[in-house]
Amino acid sequence: MFHCDSEVGLDQKPVMSFLCKLAVVTVVLVFYDQVNAGEIIGGQEAKPHSRPYMALLRRNASQNQVLFCDGLLLDEDFVMTAAHCQAEFITVLLGLHDMNDKKNVQEITVKEEFPHKDYNKHGFVNDLMVLKLSSKAQINDYVKPVDLADHSSPVPQHCIVSGWGKTSMNDKHLSTKLMEVEVTLIRDKNCEDQYFFCSEGKAGPASGDSGGPLVCEGGVAYGVVSSFYTPPSGGKNLYLFAKISDQKQWITSTMEESLIKH
C-alpha cells in the first residue's frame, strides 16, 4: 500500500523536522538537498469491515479544496486523528470499506476540534486531535470503537496501519478500498525523544493516510499516522506515528470536559 506523492522543499532544521505531511493533496517533503522520496509499496486490501474503528475524514479547506485524512473511532461521540488534519469543516465517514459502496456507512459532521495543546506544526510533535461529532455514531457490526494503549502498555513490535491513501507513485487518487500493511516498530532515540513510534522500510503509510491508527498486538491502538522522513544521505524511509500511549490522560480528559461543557 502507500506512497507519498509530494513537492520537495528545503529547510535546515533538526533531523525530526525532515517530515512529510500525509494529507492527500498538500504534501510537502523537507530535505537538506533534493532527495528522491522513492516509491513506497506494500500491503493489501483489508478484509471488509474487519477494522470497524476506521474513519475516513472528508475535509473542506480553503478555495473549495476537499482533502482527506483517516481517523479512529474512540466512542459514539468522538473520533481521533492527526492535529495536522485540522480544517474549517470535516465530515466523518464510519462503516466504510469501498468508497463505491455506501451501504451501512454513517456520515457525521464534526462539531468541534481539539488539537493537542502542545502540538508543534513545525516538527509534528504531539500530532494528535480529538474530534467531537455533531451526533452520536451508531455502534454496530460495521462501526465499533478501538481500545487505546496507555503509558503502562508494553511497547509493541508488530503493528498494522490501515487507510485509503495512495498505493503507488503514479496514483493521483486515493485507494477506493481500505488497505492495510504490517509494520515493525524500531527503537530510535530521536523518535522516542519526540514522542513518536517509528518504523522503516519500503512499506508504510502515505498520502491520504494521515491520522489513521497504528494498531498493534491485542487490537489496541498505540499511535496515529503523522509523517515520514527520508535521510538526506539516503537509506530507509522512517515512518512516524504520534504516540497515543503517552497521551491517554489528555485524550480522556478532553473527551470528558467536552461532554460536561455541552
Automatic annotation (TrEMBL):
Pfam families in alphabetical order: Trypsin
Domain Peptidase S1, residue spans: 40-256
InterPro entries: Peptidase_S1_PA, Peptidase_S1_PA_chymotrypsin, Peptidase_S1A, Trypsin_dom, TRYPSIN_HIS, TRYPSIN_SER
Subcellular location: Secreted, Extracellular space
EC number(s) reported in the record: 3.4.21.4
Membrane-spanning residues: none
One cellular component term from this protein's GO annotations in UniProt: extracellular region
Keyword field: Disulfide bond, Hydrolase, Protease, Serine protease, Signal, Zymogen
Name of this chain's protein: trypsin
